[in-house]
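Input structure tokens:
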């Protein structure tokens, strides 16, 4: 069987684009709807803040840590082994934490890949890499 890579590429791009929407909240804040969800069905809250000089700050506006705080002590995963994992996840995905918000400074050219990177960071944090450590590793 021969696969036409260009057709496959176009089909995949159309399908993925249909899953992502941008909505204007204010002139400086856009909401990004994606298919990414927490286990309870809540959608990841992703926003684009338009910053001076054309910088785009992709952020969760603190939603991820707030969502996780309902079942976990957020301060504990900034310490010890959990803290090291949390820092590793942020480093691997180029995500920063600013006042409880997870964010990536981006540009229009990098925005698509940065949405995936922020989603990956949230997923890794959410999936328990910072919370679900075996008892022998927890601090």
């Amino acid at each position: 069987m021969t696969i036409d890579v260009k057709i496959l590429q176009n089909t995949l791009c159309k399908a993925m684009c249909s899953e992502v929407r941008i909505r204007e909240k204010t002139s400086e804040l856009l909401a990004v709807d994606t298919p990414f969800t927490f286990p309870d069905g809540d959608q990841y809250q992703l926003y684009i803040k338009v910053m001076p000089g054309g910088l785009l700050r992709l952020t969760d506006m603190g939603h991820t840590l707030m969502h996780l705080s309902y079942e976990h002590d957020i301060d504990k995963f900034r310490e010890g082994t959990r803290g090291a994992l949390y820092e590793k996840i942020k480093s691997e995905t180029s995500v920063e934490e600013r006042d409880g918000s997870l964010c990536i400074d981006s540009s229009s050219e990098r925005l698509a890949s940065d949405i995936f990177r922020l989603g990956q960071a949230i997923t890794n944090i959410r999936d328990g890499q910072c919370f679900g450590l075996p008892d022998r590793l927890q601090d």
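The chain has one domain: 5-133. The chain is about 40% helix and 20% strand.
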